[in-house]
Amino acid sequence: MSPTIEKMKPRDRVLAALAGERVDRPPVCTPTNVATVELMDLVDAPFPDANRDGEMNARLAATAYTELGFDTIAPYFSIIQESSALGCDMQWEQKDNWPTVRMSNPIWKSSSDVKIPAGFLEHQDTKTITDSISILKKEYGNEVAIVGKTMGPWTLAYHVFGVEPFLLGTVDDPDETMKALHALKEVTILYGLAQIEAGADILTLPDHATGDLVSSEYYRRFLLEMHQELKEALPVPIMLHICGDTVDRMPYIAQTGMAAFHFDSKNDPADAIAAVDGGIRLVGNINNPTTLYARGPEEVRAEVFAALDAGVQLIGPECAIPLKTKLENLLEIPIAIEDWVAEHGEN
Amino acid sequence: MPSLAERPRISDQLKKLGRCIELVSIDPHFHDVTIGLFLKGGVMTVWSFSDRAGIAERIEQIRDRCTRLGDVVAVDGTSDQLKLISDLELDRALKFMFTAAVEKDPARELPTGRITAPDTKTKLIFVVEGAEEDGKYVYTISTEGQSERAEMRVRATVGGFIRYSDCERIAKNKFAFPDGRRYDEFARLILPLARNVSAVESQLAASELEGQMTTQTLGFSQS
In A199-296, which ranges are continuous DSSP H helix? Predict the structure, then answer.
């Protein structure tokens, strides 16, 4: 950041920040969902339909820019689109709750079962996102960064094998686990490339090797190399997303070559900056369940300032925001960034 | 894509509305729209970002239900605004009032007359009656019916009023609102909640988890 830089377009700002280049101000970035029940009403695009119809999806996603003033639009709200297309048992829920995969009813048992169905990219639930990206690219692509999302193999494995069988398999037969992850990685690449072709400038890559489920050693052993491969296979900046306490694996994450790591509020921003040691940019980490959901703009502002003070390069909620988040709290994020820059002069 | 240019931006609208006290994500009696209660300068506004046909009438209906569920009055000349009868800050009671106004069947008659509610843990009936005492309007909880636990249940229910309306305990069976004024409708509204705080808290916690994306709600974690 420098006072000599002219005001940037949101898209340019985000891409520059992800490349580690100078920006006029830190971007407000949404690697994950910022849609709320009120925004659904505003554009008449409620859940679950907005997850299953490209036009509705685009209408809702665009509000991140048109109404909230964020620098990105991220149309993939949930984490289930590919899993639905793979044949998982879905629970679509209603307007105020997340669609989920019924993981108690897994569809596959081993790596040999992993097969990408013919027409995977034409399935209603994968096509919703690519259609939406195409619409958004046409409407806003010159101005705003369009963020796609492709689920990583670890998260897909939870969905298709079930959480418990998959995690037990990592202990009982690690080689088989690696085979399964490699097979699922092809889903990640296929869907990521389809979104890039549709117009995505950036991809979020969630892969839930979270601190409350697996150790940092697991990350190094099963995922580090795979994430490096994904970075090579997907030719846009990638924001890796892992929930929970992840400071212990951030030194490994910094070796993936990805553009940024989207991190959780369970990690102190200063600790996170120290852990990645300049190896990767950080996006985050405004707390969802307490700050954005239950508190007010003053508390949001304090967290934005804390993240910026620590040196976090792109600011946004830590994860998909609660669907009942109050809009006044989301609106405060870009305001707080502007005020921080006015106070501090540079990032 | 439809243009949003004709609408006021939400940031401008929120400046007019003020702070959101409560958001009911699904109105089960009107197309599942989201309805909010906002507060600015002592005036509350019932609001929705939906523009479905009939939304203004539904908002007026909710506003009017609020005036019967709580100690609030409609603002003259409006169909969506209301005010508390005093300057007291009663956010929790207002949240319960608003949620009930949106979620309860509008065709259902609201209770009037004596303030009573059956206990959920005994066969007692709680009765709340108020009277002026030493310059304060003091509410007394008594019971009808027989139970060895009556005194304990009354004491717990007074605790519920303290929790949900910031009331002051005057005696083991008596409470007053923070400013010592009379709030019969809030007493009626809160009594069914105050009698079983643990159940209400569980319900509120479950409600708060809805719509949150965490490793727990995604099924990735039990912790």
Answer: 216-218, 225-233, 250-253, 269-276, 293-294
CB contact A327 to B (< 8 Å): yes
Q: Which candidate from B1, B10, B214 shows the least CB-CB separation from A42? A: B10
| Strand order across the B125-133 sheet | B115-118, B125-133, B136-144, B174-176, B168-171
Contact, A237 vs A148, CB < 8 A?
Answer: no
- Amino acid letter, B22: E
What is d(CA A298, CA B150) in angstroms, rounded to the nearest whole number?
A: 45
pLDDT (tens digit, 9 = 90+) per residue, A262-318? 999 999 999 999 999 999 999 999 999 999 999 999 999 999 999 999 999 999 999
Hey, which residues 125-164 in chain A have their CB within 8 Å of chain B? Answer: 135, 139, 158, 163
Q: Which residues contact A264 (CB under 8 A, 6 or more apart)?
A: A242, A243, A244, A245, A246, A284, A285, A318, A319
Q: Is residue A27 classed exposed, middle or buried when 0-12, 13-18 and 19+ CB atoms within 10 A define those classes?
A: buried
Inter-residue contact B211 to B25 (CB < 8 Å): yes
Predicted structure pTM score: 0.93
Measured from the Cβ of residue A171, the count of other Cβ atoms closer than 10 Å reads 8
Q: What is the pLDDT of residue A5?
A: 81
pLDDT tens for residues A336-346? 999 999 998 75
| Residue A134 vs residues A130, A140, A196, A197: alpha-carbon distances, Å | 6, 10, 10, 9
Q: Which of A32, A98, A139 sits opposite B211 (nearest CB)?
A: A98
Nearest 5°: the CA angle B54, B60, B65 is 125
Structure tokens of B52? Answer: 């479905």
What confidence score (pLDDT) does residue B95 get? 95
A148 in Cβ contact with A185 (< 8 Å): no
Q: Are A148 and A129 in contact (CB under 8 A)?
A: yes
Confidence class for position B3, pLDDT limits 50, 70, 90? very low
For residues A22 and A6, is the Cβ–Cβ distance under 8 A?
A: no
**B176 three-state secondary structure:** strand
The whole-angstrom separation of Cα A261 and Cα B45 is: 41
Average pLDDT over residues B95-106: 96
Residue of B11, B20, B219 lying closest to A103 (CB–CB): B219
Quick one: tokens of B147?
A: 């139970």
| Residue located via tokens 């929705």 | B48
Reported ipTM: 0.90
Q: Where do the DSSP E strands lie in chain A?
A: 72-73, 90-91, 100-101, 145-149, 202-206, 238-241, 260-263, 281-286, 314-317
Q: A204 is written with which tokens?
A: 């979020």
